[in-house]
Amino acid sequence: QSQLHFSSISVPSVKTEPVKCRKGFKACKDGLECVMYSHVCDGEQDCKDGSDEDGCETLCKTGWFSWQT
Ligand SMILES: [Ca+2]
């Protein structure tokens, strides 16, 4: 369970604004964190709310990376 720190991403005081994630990053459901796609559905909760592991059954079964083949 890694705590991700992105010091380069400055979150303004407006908390209702979801965090802008860089390419290759997925926003957590709480909109406060970004998680690398390699950390999505890896079985560990990287988001505080664990939302990076949400819906992984469908995500993994359909295989989002298999689209590339
Ligand atoms: Ca994860």
UniProtKB/TrEMBL annotation:
Cross-referenced PROSITE patterns: LDLRA_1 (PS01209), LDLRA_2 (PS50068)
UniProt keywords (A-Z) are:
Disulfide bond
Name the source's superkingdom: Eukaryota
Provide the disulphide bond pattern. Answer: C41-C56
Q: Does the keyword Metal-binding apply?
A: no
Q: Does the keyword Disulfide bond apply?
A: yes
Indicate what this protein is called per its UniProt record: Uncharacterized protein
